[in-house]
Specification:
Glutaredoxin, two-stranded antiparallel sheet, 6-stranded mixed β-sheet, alpha+beta, 310 residues, 11 helices
């Protein structure tokens, strides 16, 4: 049996610099005898190794669900490959990244300024929505505020539940309207599904934000490029500022409006696709952790309605 000399001489850095104190004679003799015994070529026979425990089977796929009442086996641990360094090296790398983060923050501030300075376009059509309090115009959705943020919520009128990804977003923005109201901002979600389905699903999810229906035809959502005719869904539609396949009759989007003192309404901004990530705080948290969003090419396929996770 060979002994790792580094292990035998394992000392704290401060101790390594100080000269060792001479040990007592009898202690040295005992240690030398012990070292000679464990390094002797005549080793005692070691007991046979314990049988190796086989790792658990991987979790079953969606197609092969485990028997009812049984538990899924735990996933196998992932092997860590990240470089591990001293605190000084870590601090150097973190400060270097901080410079890039500050540059990104300054760029984000500049983009936000340019976003606020975009020209406006007048809203010409008179839109009417089904709300909890009856029929309401677009102007009435502002309430007493001059600014309105609309989340175009994907909810197929033929389904009982809304899009799980939009629901993921809703879990994140549900608590924000009360704060936005103190910055002269109203917030509302708009879907093509009928109000009865919207209210039922909203109750199931436990949300409190205002959510209205623009009707199955979805003229409001279509005018702001968040919903499409069946022909557009099949052949491609104008979405995220270019014509492209959209994969269905609804897509995620955010639109912003302003109402002046005369009651005139203007469209000031719209964002689509990853542009809506600004209101998903969970993604910003995931961007901080070592594994990140951990989605790969599959995208957010892992997302479920919050009452449907295992």
């Amino acid at each position: 049996m060979e002994v790792d000399a580094a292990w035998l001489l394992d000392v704290q850095p401060a101790q390594a610099l100080a000269p060792p104190k001479p040990p007592r004679r009898e202690t040295m003799e005992v240690k030398l005898e012990w070292l000679e015994e464990i390094t002797s070529t005549k080793k005692r026979a070691l007991p046979p190794p314990l049988p190796r425990e086989e790792p658990p089977d991987p979790p079953p796929s969606r197609r092969s669900k485990p028997p009812r009442g049984s538990k899924r086996p735990p996933p196998l641990p992932q092997r860590e490959t990240r470089r591990v360094v001293s605190h000084e090296e870590w601090l150097t790398a973190r400060i270097a990244l901080l410079a890039k983060e500050k540059a990104l923050t300054r760029m984000s501030d500049e983009i936000a300024r340019e976003r606020r300075e975009l020209p406006w376009e007048p809203v010409q059509r008179a839109y009417v929505f089904d709300t909890l309090h009856g029929r309401a115009t677009l102007g009435e959705l502002f309430g007493k505020k001059s600014q309105l943020v609309v989340y175009h919520f994907m909810f197929d009128p033929t389904k009982a539940a809304a899009c799980r990804h939009c629901s993921f977003w809703a879990d994140n923005f549900d608590g924000t309207p009360v704060h936005l109201a103190h910055r002269d901002v109203a917030f509302v979600a708009v879907s093509r599904a009928p109000l009865t389905k919207i209210l039922a699903f909203k109750k199931r999810m436990g949300w409190s934000f205002e959510w209205v229906s623009c009707g199955e035809d979805g003229q409001f959502n279509r005018d702001f490029n968040a919903s499409f005719t069946q022909e557009e869904a099949d052949q491609g539609a104008f979405y995220n500022y270019k014509k492209q396949p959209v994969g269905g009759r609804d897509r995620e989007a955010i639109s912003v409006f302003y109402k002046d003192s005369t009651g005139a309404i203007f469209h000031t901004y719209s964002a689509y696709a990853r542009g809506v990530e600004a209101i998903n705080g969970a993604y910003h948290v995931l961007d901080l952790v070592p594994k990140g969003r951990d989605e790969g090419e599959a995208g957010p396929s892992w997302v479920r309605h919050h009452d449907r996770y295992e």
